[in-house]
């Protein structure tokens, strides 16, 4: 079949015929990509889109960044090995140099790194195995609203019960704690008070001999919940989680698979709170767009035996070359500061769109990891408090965005949050364009809803 001449329809039809029913993005982003550059992609019909999905945050420097392309071309031209398991190479050591340079000294000076199979969920699995081996304990503390991947161990940590129901019998022993989601505070108060109560709840639970929780092997959390709807953890609450876990010798695992490498306005999101984790899981951006995942952890936990955790494709040398180039470019060009600046600009635009629109309940996030939650103003959530999330409205806005040349993804409760994860190199002008398209899309959905309510 000539896919080029057939355009989007030919490729999408073939994909639907041959791929599994588990495929996701093509169902609500019906395009086949012909080429891509920077913050834009062009489909097989020649239509161009701003890409605010960017490989679910993988493409920190956007599509085909010259620095990343050059690094891969040099590696290939030099006939460097492509795959080495965990045998080292100069490229691997340079990657580790750059990775450790990106971390706060207080963490990197005591760190070990474990290369995993190349997906973020593999890093989570490795982190769970690490802390269980080091502590001898089994149970894990997770949080409501969390997303850590789709393998069995990672799924057990997820807040979404529907996604993990099919394999519930294989789950780890996980206790889901309340996350200080300001808009939908689990204690009904929100703000500083909600975060304080959430901290006290966790501390009291761990100190209660009748809580039913055995000694934990670790606590894992996202400093900004990504798939959960771009929900940032308050800095003071993070500091309290660090204090609580440290005082009880519970390893603290921070999942920065999506938030890490400049996206939130700091190189790593935990730096906003000024804390140091025991374990850090990383993937996505650190591979420069290619598959790569690592666990970085305190040397005191390095007690597992040789071969305790492996993975055939942990030796992806092209990803290490691309990752080194990406990390160095982010650091050299202060892209964390840029993300903070243009992220604030985008947030201002999004809040302006939401002003006076009852269907927008919350605008939140950090840096270039933002979300807009859509709600049904005629329905309360769980009988009280904020309005119920409205996934149908969000899906309609996503579709209108797509028709106007903007790719955004949905997440959060009822998939009601439009999520923005543009490349960190996005310009101010592009941010303004993205915001304008989003505003038009929201207006279009509101107008359609208004017309539907008018009697014939």
Automatic annotation (TrEMBL):
<comment type="similarity">
    <text>Belongs to the class-III pyridoxal-phosphate-dependent aminotransferase family.</text>
</comment>
<dbReference type="Pfam" id="PF00202">
    <property type="entry name" value="Aminotran_3"/>
</dbReference>
<dbReference type="InterPro" id="IPR015421">
    <property type="entry name" value="PyrdxlP-dep_Trfase_major"/>
</dbReference>
<dbReference type="InterPro" id="IPR015422">
    <property type="entry name" value="PyrdxlP-dep_Trfase_small"/>
</dbReference>
<dbReference type="GO" id="GO:0030170">
    <property type="term" value="F:pyridoxal phosphate binding"/>
</dbReference>
<dbReference type="InterPro" id="IPR004637">
    <property type="entry name" value="Dat"/>
</dbReference>
<dbReference type="InterPro" id="IPR015424">
    <property type="entry name" value="PyrdxlP-dep_Trfase"/>
</dbReference>
<dbReference type="InterPro" id="IPR005814">
    <property type="entry name" value="Aminotrans_3"/>
</dbReference>
<dbReference type="InterPro" id="IPR049704">
    <property type="entry name" value="Aminotrans_3_PPA_site"/>
</dbReference>
<keyword id="KW-0032">Aminotransferase</keyword>
<dbReference type="GO" id="GO:0045303">
    <property type="term" value="F:diaminobutyrate-2-oxoglutarate transaminase activity"/>
</dbReference>
<keyword id="KW-0808">Transferase</keyword>
<protein>
    <submittedName>
        <fullName>Diaminobutyrate--2-oxoglutarate transaminase</fullName>
        <ecNumber>2.6.1.76</ecNumber>
    </submittedName>
</protein>
<keyword id="KW-0663">Pyridoxal phosphate</keyword>
């Amino acid at each position: 079949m000539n896919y080029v001449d057939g355009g989007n329809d030919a490729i999408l039809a073939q994909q639907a015929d041959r791929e599994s029913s588990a495929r996701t993005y093509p169902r609500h982003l019906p395009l086949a990509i012909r080429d891509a550059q920077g913050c834009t992609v062009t489909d097989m019909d020649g239509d161009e889109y701003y890409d605010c999905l960017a490989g679910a945050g993988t493409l920190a420097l956007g599509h085909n960044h010259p620095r990343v392309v050059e690094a891969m071309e040099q590696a290939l031209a030099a006939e460097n090995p492509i795959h080495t398991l965990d045998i080292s190479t100069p490229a691997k050591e340079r990657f580790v140099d750059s990775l450790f340079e990106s971390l706060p000294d207080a963490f990197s000076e005591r760190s070990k790194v474990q290369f995993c199979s190349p997906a973020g969920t593999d890093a989570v699995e490795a982190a769970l195995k690490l802390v269980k081996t080091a502590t001898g304990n089994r149970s894990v503390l997770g949080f409501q609203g969390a997303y850590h991947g789709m393998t069995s161990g990672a799924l057990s940590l997820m807040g979404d019960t529907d996604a993990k129901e099919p394999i519930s019998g294989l789950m780890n022993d996980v206790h889901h704690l309340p996350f200080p989601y300001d808009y939908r505070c689990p204690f009904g108060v929100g703000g500083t008070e909600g975060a304080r109560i959430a901290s006290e709840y966790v501390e009291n639970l761990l100190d209660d001999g009748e809580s039913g929780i055995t000694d934990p092997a670790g606590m894992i959390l996202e400093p900004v919940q990504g798939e959960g709807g771009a929900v940032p953890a308050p800095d003071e609450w993070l500091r309290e989680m660090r204090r609580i876990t440290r005082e009880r010798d519970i390893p603290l695992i921070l999942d920065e698979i999506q938030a890490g490498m400049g996206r939130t306005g700091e190189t790593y999101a935990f730096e906003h709170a000024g804390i140091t984790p025991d374990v850090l899981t990383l993937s996505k951006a650190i591979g420069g767009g290619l598959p790569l995942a690592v666990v970085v952890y305190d040397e005191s936990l390095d007690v597992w035996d040789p071969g305790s955790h492996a993975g055939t494709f942990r030796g992806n040398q092209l990803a290490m070359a691309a990752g080194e180039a990406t990390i160095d470019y982010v650091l050299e060009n202060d892209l964390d500061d840029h993300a903070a600046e243009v992220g604030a600009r985008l947030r201002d635009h999004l809040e302006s769109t939401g002003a006076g629109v009852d269907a927008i309940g919350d605008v939140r996030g950090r840096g270039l990891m933002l979300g807009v939650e859509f709600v049904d103003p005629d329905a309360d959530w769980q009988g009280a408090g904020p309005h119920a999330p409205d996934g149908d409205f969000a899906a309609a806005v996503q579709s209108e965005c797509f028709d106007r040349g903007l790719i955004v993804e949905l997440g959060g409760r009822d998939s009601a949050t439009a999520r923005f994860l543009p490349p960190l190199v996005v310009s101010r002008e592009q941010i303004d364009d993205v915001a304008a398209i989003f505003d038009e899309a929201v207006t279009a959905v509101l107008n359609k809803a208004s017309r539907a309510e008018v009697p014939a």
